[in-house]
Design a protein that fits this description.
By secondary structure, this protein is of the alpha+beta class. It has six helices and 24 strands.
Length: 375
């Protein structure tokens, strides 16, 4: 059956539409916040949930501080170790308007050419300013107008909490300034580096981190930098929900030295070798005329003896371990492993005095040691 509206039917339909539009206009007039309303700090768009609004605000505040780093290098390969071109990619964080950019050491390691792509699409050549392989941190510098350099805002990492919402921005698989979200899954993780050292206080997050994210920022809900993404735990090389970031507290100690000196000068206690025991760290060897030896600390003694054997004089030596100091604490902080000791010392500066607590002949002593500089 076909329905014919005719003139009066069309008129009635038009009146219904006009009536509905009038009600909508009246509703919007009474509640302008149905689409958006002006509040302190900007306009809130009611299309988005509060969580989505936070995501958008963080991305808008930080994405221009994130750069795409492309490198070219040569690697030796094959039977005759012929050098062949190699390319790499990663992320970086704009530190200041002078063009300093923070990234991972492994992103720029061995690079012959570095190109940095900024948010506006412009590409700039960069050079390495300083590197610290022990913490996988590097600073590079490019020449670009100040107007296109947007430094990140540093936060703190000493008061982070497990469960806290975090945001990672980087260039996974070359896809520029990609935002992923998650939480802090754990704190104070340890991450070994290729130099044999261990980076302490690492942040673990479930925010998706993939190849190309390395060197990008990890920020909090206030758009403040709390860490730099550095690695993932994955058998496939892609995100498995376990990513790691170097905390901004560590970066804050390292970056100024890299910019000023090109390297990190770490404090040194002058203790060359220790052995771990259930009771503490046994001091095996002290650096000759080093800080620990000058302070009176004791290590193993080498006892040399000579004796006659027929017409010859034979010299022998033996190690006396009985008088070696046993390290149990640094500045009141208990230490049980060599890593504990290094962490306690390296949180200081050359020239600082630390109190190293040792057990010697059944007594606990506090030995003041003025730290030197590591060669």
């Amino acid at each position: 059956m076909t329905t014919r509206f005719g003139f009066w039917g069309c008129l009635a339909a038009a009146m219904v539409v006009a009536s509905v539009w009038g009600l909508e206009r009246q509703s919007l007039a009474q509640d302008p916040g149905a689409v958006g309303e002006t509040v302190a700090g900007g306009t809130v768009d009611r299309r988005f949930t509060p969580e989505e609004q936070t995501n958008i605000a963080v991305y808008d505040a930080v994405n221009r501080s994130v750069v795409n780093i492309n490198t070219k290098a040569t690697v030796a390969t094959g039977l005759f170790l012929m050098e062949v071109p190699s390319e790499g990619a990663g992320s970086g964080i704009v530190l200041d308007r002078q063009g300093h950019v923070l990234t991972n050491f492994h992103v720029v390691e061995g690079a012959k050419e570095i190109q940095v792509l900024l948010y506006d699409g412009s590409s700039h050549a960069a050079r390495v300013v300083g590197v610290d392989p022990a913490t996988d941190v590097a600073v590079i510098k490019l020449d670009a107008p100040e107007t296109v350099l947007h430094p990140v805002v540093f936060g703190t990492s000493g008061d982070l909490r497990v469960g806290q919402r975090v945001f990672a921005i980087g260039n996974p698989f070359g896809l520029e300034r990609t935002l992923t979200t998650g939480i802090i899954s754990s704190l104070n993780r340890s991450l070994p580096t290729r130099t044999g050292r261990t980076i302490k206080s690492i942040i673990q997050t479930d925010a998706a981190i993939n190849p190309g994210n390395s060197g990008g920022p990890l920020v909090d809900s206030g758009s403040r930098l709390i860490g730099m993404t550095t690695a993932i735990a994955s058998r496939t090389g892609q995100s498995a929900g376990v990513g790691f970031a170097i905390p901004v507290g560590t970066l804050g100690r390292i970056v100024p030295q890299l910019i000023a000196k090109g390297k990190v000068v770490r404090p040194d206690a002058g203790i060359s070798r220790v052995y771990q025991s259930d009771a503490g760290l046994v001091v095996a060897e002290l650096a000759p005329d080093g800080p620990a030896e000058r302070s009176g600390m004791r290590g193993f003694k080498i006892i040399r003896e000579r004796r006659r054997q027929g017409p010859f004089t034979v010299e022998t030596s033996r190690v006396d371990r009985s008088g070696a100091d046993l390290i149990v604490a640094v500045d009141g902080q208990s230490v049980r492993t060599a890593d504990d000791f290094l962490s306690a010392v390296e949180s200081r500066n050359p020239g600082d005095q630390v109190l190293i607590a040792v057990l010697r002949e059944g007594h606990r002593l506090e030995v003041p040691v003025v730290l030197g500089a590591e060669n």
